[in-house]
Fold this protein.
Amino acid sequence: MTRLPALALLCAAAFAQDTRVVLLGTGNPNPEPDRMGPAAAVISGDRVYLVDCGAGVVRRAAQAGIEMKQLTRAFVTHLHSDHTVGLPDLIFTPAVTGRIAPLEIYGPPGLRAMTSRVMKAWREDMNIRLHGLEPAVAQAYVVHAHDVKPGEIYRDDRMRVIAIAVQHGSWKYAYGYRFEAKDKTIVFSGDTTYSPALARSAAGCDILVHEVYSAAGLAKRTPDWRTYHAAFHTSGLDLGKLAAEVRPKKLVLYHQLPMGETAEEVISEIREHFAGEIVYGKDLDVIR
C-alpha cells in the first residue's frame, strides 16, 4: 500500500476544504435590480458563515446552491438598514424550508435588541407554525444573538473568526471580520473609512473584501454628500493605499458606490497605489 507523506496529506486536506467567498449581495441602499443588499458567504467544506444580511440574502443563497439547513451562522458588521433588513428573512425563511438547528448571530452591541424585536414582531407567525397543523421544527426558530467586542468571537474545527473595530462615521460600533481557515484567510471590511486597524489585521490575507466609492464621482456631489461619504466610506484612492499595505492575493470590491463612474474608473483609482489582482464584485461571484 502506498503511503502519502504527512505534508502531502495536509495539502490534500487543505485542498479538499476549498474555502471560498460567495458574494450574495454587492449593493448598497440604492435599489439596483442586479445587486442585492450587502451579504456574503464564506464557505469552508460543508460549513457556511454569512457576513451581513442585506435584502435578498436568502434567495441569493439559494441561487448559489447553499442549502437552507446550512444557514446557521451569521456575522453582522453593523446595524445600518442595508446590512440588516434581511434579518427577518434569514431568521424565518430557512426555518420554514429546511433549517433544523438554531441560528447563531454575532455582531456589535445592539444586535441582540434588534433580534429580540424581530422575534416579537413575528410572534403570531411563529405561534401559528409551531402550534398549528404545520410540521414545523421548533429548533429552527431558536435564535441566539450575541453582542460581541473586538477580538476572537467564534471558533470551530473549521474556522476562527475575529472581529475588528472599524470607523464608520457616527456609528459607535462597526466591525470588519477576519476568517481564518486551514487553507485560507479572508477579511471583510464591512462599511468603513480608511482603517489602520483593519490594515494591521488583514496583513497578508488571501482575500480582502472591501467597500469602495469613487473619489472622482464624489467630487461631483454636493458638499453635504461629500462630507457624509468621506466620514463613512473608503475612496478608491485610499483603498489603493490600504491594499498596498495589506498585500492581499486578491482584492474584492463590494458595496460599490461608483457615483456615475465606470468600474474601470474605480479600479484605476485603486491602481494608483496597488498593483495586485482586483475583482469588481458582482452578485453570485465565487472567489477562491
